[in-house]
Design goal:
The chain contains 18 helices and 33 strands. The protein is of the alpha+beta class. It folds into 3 domains: about 170 residues, Aldehyde Oxidoreductase, domain 4 (2-Layer Sandwich); about 170 residues, Aldehyde Oxidoreductase, domain 4, CATH 3.30.365.10; about 300 residues, Aldehyde Oxidoreductase, domain 4. The strands form 8 sheets. It has a 7-stranded mixed beta sheet. Strands 1-27-21-22-23 form a 5-stranded mixed beta sheet. It binds dioxothiomolybdenum(VI) ion. The site of dioxothiomolybdenum(VI) ion has 11 residues, from loops. Pfam families: Ald_Xan_dh_C (PF01315), MoCoBD_1 (PF02738), MoCoBD_2 (PF20256).
Length: about 725
Amino acid sequence: MKFDTPATRNPIDQMKVVGRAHDRIDGPLKTTGTAPYAYEWHDEIPGAAYGYVVGSAIAKGRITAMDLHEAETAPGVLAIVTADNAGKLGKGDMNAATLLGGPAIEHYHQAIAVVVAETFEQARAAASLIHVKYLREPGAFSLAAQKPAVTTPPEDTPDKTAGDFTTAFAASAVQHDATYTTPDQSHMAMEPHTSLAVWEGDKLILRTSNQMIAWCRSELAKTLNIPEEKVRVISPYIGGGFGGKLFLRSDAVLAALAARAANRPVKVMLPRPLIPNNTTHRPATIQHIRIGTDEKGRITAIAHESWSGNLPGGTPETAVQQSELLYAGKNRLTGLRLAQLDLPEGNAMRAPGEAPGLMALEIAIDEVAEKAGVDPVEFRILNDTQVDPLNTGRFFSRRQLIECLRTGAEKFGWHRRNATPAQVRDGRWLMGIGVAAGFRNNLLEKSGARVHLDAQGVVTVETDMTDIGTGSYTIIAQTAAEMLGVPLEKVVVRLGDSDFPVSAGSGGQWGANTSTAGVYAACVKLREAIAEKLGFDADSAVFTDELICQGDRTASLAQAAASGTITVEDTIEFVGLDKTFQQSTFAAHFVEVGVDIATGETRVRRMLAVCAAGRILNPKTARSQVIGAMTMGIGAALTEELNVDTTLGYFVNHDLAAYEVPVHADIPDQEVIFLDDTDPVSSPMKAKGVGELGLCGVSAAIANAIYNATGVRVRDYPVTLDKLIGGLPELG
Ligand code: MOS
């Protein structure tokens, strides 16, 4: 099915099943520990050996010698794979560095060997007996040090301009010019990167933890120099991804090579301390923002430039994306600058681009609003735009930022905020309230599904879509149930297998809208097949209560499959509407904090997100996505930071003891409101993405609340107490 004109009325609009707060259908499997994660196919694949990954001890240079002898003769060892004995490997298109390094080393903890043994402990012990000699080469490890030399955009991402920024900024009544920094961050998904490889002859079956089945399959085939048809990827349950599992990673490649070398099923899990340096991370940014307004606070000039670093072949963090679209202003400049660094690869992490971009932009907006003497909620409303500011003939499909801000201000009690900082006390706590806009583009990826109807009237959906903890199983079941007029219990959903049709996968908050749209397309075909079989007209027939009805005729769905299961397949393809309309999602985030006047410790007390993100397919799973994202925003604002050793070139705090993510005790009262935002331009589901939107803007709202509480403006994340304490008011 091609989706090239806005959706009209369709069976999803009935909202009998879709749009309801159903519990997750995979919940019982997860709460009883019976959902098989990649490391846990004990019954299906008994007797798997264990692979332990060895990471490079240097960031850049060469391996000059590698002595495996002692390790090879250690107890239980079955095989050791290195670049030396792995055979010629290809390289996928989506990795900057190779996934099995050596002799050249491109980053710290790049995998250089996998040791296979009967037990995990034997593999780990033997790994420590590999003796490696390195020749260390100098590398570039500091973004700040590289920044001055990087003044032009990368070739494929030129600056975007309108009007004449420089002149307009110089002439503006109110000017704000400041630089903001965000640190490197690690995804830290609960489930580590894990793969279990089995060779059946020349065919590889890989059970893994990956967001994008088709990407994983093609990249793995490329790496192993085998045809794609010889690779099957299975990933039905995933313990979090956040972008860290969008791509093929070393666990998958090394499990495949290890299983081949040991002639046994092998499973490889990256130990937590290997993950931050071996896998990808969200790159640090330095963001220079200049905003000029007239006397009334209307933006006349806005510029946002962002510096980030990456390995050769890597891409920049697109932190200026939202600044192209969020606010009006005739004179504009946005641009990316990319420094070459020899740190591990930077890549997508939840809401890549907008998440770190809004961390900077939405503090800058708070600052310029104050300078212009305009309330920060009103400032954002004043500078709203209903068209793409770089292409004013192009409208947003739906844009309810103003409604988000007004609704949130009212619900949160914004009018009670004291606009003068450091005025409100609750005992030892300095109290403050902050706001930020949330923005994330709505991405569309084609998505396929296969549906079956059997003689019992059971509808089975198969697609390689993944559920990374998001609720895909449930919303896909809801979609099929709505389309066929059957109860949720009559729908079986099978996900995460490359034997199923290629879906959109889970990434970029496109998963919910586009994967269900693919299921919608397949279900339209199934309705046609059923109608034809039973002599009904597919367009006018009604599917309800497990029946197909037309006029005074009815028949049971099961009857259509009495002589054999009906199977159909389709793929939704999005053509052109994203060119005609700008499709984005919007939010307003409100936060209340208390900052300890003596220690500078920040505690978030209340949070509210008001989201306009298309039709909400399941308010319960959507709310869970948003509160999870808000929690991530607390981490980004207050604690999360990979500390770079700029001499040796690696992330020092590489475990959950030192890379601090929020725990339950850090999380306050969180409230989420979804505005009615049914958007026929986005898909037949009229839905959009919401998971990443929940993060976008949160950290800035916290930083702004801290400023309101203390009068200290911190432009360097995370906002830790050492950055506050010197500016806090006198004790008293
Ligand atoms: Mo997301 S960072 O595209 O998984």
